[in-house]
Amino acid sequence: MKSKKLLAGPYLFWSVSFIIIPLLMIFYYGLTDQDGAFTFANLAKITTPENLKALGLALLLSLISTLICLVMAYPLAMILASMNVNQTSFIVLIFILPMWMNFLLRTLAWQTLLEKNGVINSILSFFHLPQLAIINTPYAIILGMVYNFLPFMVLPIYNVLVKIDKDVINAARDLGANNRQTFFKIILPLTVPGIISGITMVFVPALTTFVISDLLGGSKILLIGNVIEQEFKQGSNWHVGSGLSLVLMIFIILSMALIAKYDKDGEGTAF
Amino acid sequence: MIKNTLQKIYLGLIFILLYAPIITLVVLSFNNSKTRAKWGGFTGKWYVALFQNEQIMNALYTTLIIALLSALIATLIGTAAAIGIQAMRKRVRTAMMAVTNIPMLNADIVTGISLMLLFIAFRFSLGFATILMAHITFNIPYVILSVMPKLKQTNRRTYEAALDLGASPIYAFFKVVFPDILPGVFSGFLLAFTMSLDDFVITHFTKGPGVDTLSTKIYSEVRKGIKPEMYALSTLLFVSVLILLILVNVSPSSKEGSTRKYVSKKSKAARFVFRRLVPAVMAIVIIAGGFFYGSKRSVSGDNQVIVYNWGEYLDPEVITIFEEETGISVVYEEYETNEIMYPKVQSGAIAYDVVCPSDYMIQRMIENDLLAEINFDHIPNIKNIGTQYMEQSRQFDAENKYSVPYCWGTVGILYNKKMVEEPIDSWSVLWDETYKDNILMQDSVRDAFAVALKYLGYSLNSTDLDELEAAKALLIEQKPLVQAYVIDQVRDKMIGNEAAIGVIYSGEAIYTQLENPDLEYVIPKEGSNVWIDSWVIPKNAKHKENAEAFINFLCRPDIAKMNFDYITYSTPNIEARKLIEDPAIRNSTIAFPDASELERCETFQFLGDENDVLYNELWREIKSK
């Protein structure tokens, strides 16, 4: 058994070098100023009205998208889970398939679809329907988030759903539970690990994205991800950028805590 | 029955949502017009052009090889780690799994930045290797999380039984345990491959010069409009994966033919496809790509020049001619704004040989001692550059020692004559309520402030706090009227009639007029910005003489003319201007405005780091309002 543990050695080395140390670097940069002196000023930058607004908006948009994803994904996962296996495996793959088309191109394609003279509006005007004017607004950003992150909600929920023992459901029915009761008393509680895992897998990337807001928001709408990206790539103040990243990590730690609480055995993984 | 139909409708709607953008991209790949804003008829030419486009093919190859290598290495390390972790005590196991979860849960942007900080701190030069290491890092967790559940399902007794029967631990592992976890290993590999393929953010922060994956290539093209070859490539990639999947799933004997939900019995056909066909196809692609890549790179060696230029700011043909004539191989890298370029040169992480910043940024680089003096003995073609442009350069390069003018132009208003009633001659139109949601504004600090400052009658180099506050107030007032803040996307949007008015560089205006004759360009009467982009050589350049040869080459009239035709930005090369065939363009007032018009215009100056911070802060306040 001892020798087996050694197999984790390379990974231990790798994770210390490329996960732990880089994180410490962010802490170092985030807590020092440009002369290397210790400071909390970079963290405090989050309280400026502009940054607070960017954070608030990012939180709002990502919460809404997460909610929409959940509402859309749950029935979808149930439908997928109820199908026979051969078909299902194909359908699940269909969710991975779009990822082979580049993420940026997929998001850009929404620009073409949503623009004033874009595809959707051309179709709408053909049928004399009112025009859709959501490009360059927060709604377009929400659409982009839902579109990009929906698979990360569907897959974990689907994975826990198919693992539910059919006997448990049958037992509930034998004991006289109707559809509603079976769902709320049996299925829903059993899928909580998947739901929690799905929520974090959608919420965290949505909260921190800068690409989607850039491409679909017309650069008019600044999210916290945009602020951080600009600090690194344009304002070239890495210390402030790291400080703001540290603030973001609070939300990530919260998500990890949530998962640890509800999904102890790691059943709710997406993959 | 009704329930069934409803389910089908719901599934159908979701699929429309998921696949609408993909169909759009496929359609665009057959679009004859170069801009995505216009349907120019059906064509297959981009599929032909794709295979001649060296940059895209290189990016594709880099993407594939990084995906393959990172997935392979991650699978090795990850599978071994999963077995090791499984054997650990519960507490250690939990800790290890928590660490594993970090890259999965952490924001891409934080992971990318943290790795970039690490690489720079330890003086790794950013490039292929750093991207690979970053990808392995975020791939390992996917493998561990795929293998772990399979490991939990394996029966430890069978392994122990094998040992009792005299098998060595290694033999027992490969005969007993490994076949059981193989499906997990395989789906982990495939996931890692897909994730690596689709990543943009982490690559964005960890890549170096001359290395591009498809994602970063696309991102740098976003500002200028995506090249249609890119749509063609994506379509090809997508279709080939689709066919592969259909083959796997449709084969009648495959009951469990999926990469993710394995049950121990798998049909032979699926096994064959996954064990032989997929790796075979991948191997062929990689090897073919390797030959392709190798043939392109064979001339290289130490005799090279590393060029760092604006996106779409040089005819690729020019590079080919330069390489053929001189035998110097060109490593070409692009940036979107001066502000993105500056820290990269300043940090010294990458030794560029020749860079093309704008006026004020050159001044900043000179002041911060980042530039080397150019040896003009090596640049005899400097004689072709008009003296007025050398004079103008003295504003930022007082003794003409550090820079050679490349392109110049003005900033003005582009408007659509069909959508705007009266002719425009003033910045005031950008504050006109009638054009609400029809205005495109520049998404860069100095350009945006220049518009407001000029409109108010101030200098666009103002550092007076009151003047800047006034400009800020004006820009905030304008924000509800603005449709979008863009840089070069102004071009596509104006061509596609998406907006009535846009702030644009004169060079782009010429191109848009060719595509859409309704567009007209004007330098507002309050005055504007006149700018010069010039070639400079950073102090830490490793191939200074090659850089000078490159600059000299670009000053050759026929080459400067080729570049003008390609990028349509005004050339300071007087001899090149004489070569322009079309008199309408040769005498165009957009490309070559009268001196009287330029009198009202100013050149940007570097205002000092403190004022830079001030401008940036004010700009962020505007953007977040």
Automatic annotation (TrEMBL), chain A:
SUPFAM superfamilies: MetI-like (SSF161098)
Superkingdom, natural source: Bacteria
PROSITE patterns found in the cross-reference section: ABC_TM1 (PS50928)
Pfam name, any one: BPD_transp_1
Keyword tags: Cell membrane, Membrane, Transmembrane, Transmembrane helix, Transport
InterPro entries recorded: MetI-like, MetI-like_sf
Compartments (UniProt record): Cell membrane
Listed GO CC annotations: plasma membrane
Topology in membrane: Multi-pass membrane protein
Single biological process term from Gene Ontology: transmembrane transport
TM stretches of this protein: 12-31, 51-77, 89-109, 139-161, 182-204, 240-260
Domain ABC transmembrane type-1: 55-259
Family the entry assigns: Belongs to the binding-protein-dependent transport system permease family. CysTW subfamily.
The protein, known as: ABC transporter permease
UniProtKB/TrEMBL annotation, chain B:
Record InterPro entries: Bact_Polyamine_Transport, MetI-like, MetI-like_sf, SBP, Sperm_putr-bd
Gene that this polypeptide is encoded by: potCD
Gene Ontology, cellular component aspect: periplasmic space; plasma membrane
GO biological process, one term: polyamine transport
Domain of life: Bacteria
Membrane-spanning parts: 9-30, 59-83, 104-122, 128-149, 170-193, 230-251, 272-293
Subcellular location: Cell membrane
Protein name: Spermidine/putrescine ABC transporter permease
The family this protein is said to belong to: Belongs to the binding-protein-dependent transport system permease family. CysTW subfamily.
Sequence ranges assigned to domain ABC transmembrane type-1 in this UniProt record: 60-248
Keywords, comma-separated and alphabetical: Cell membrane, Membrane, Transmembrane, Transmembrane helix, Transport
GO molecular function, one term: polyamine binding
Membrane-topology descriptor: Multi-pass membrane protein
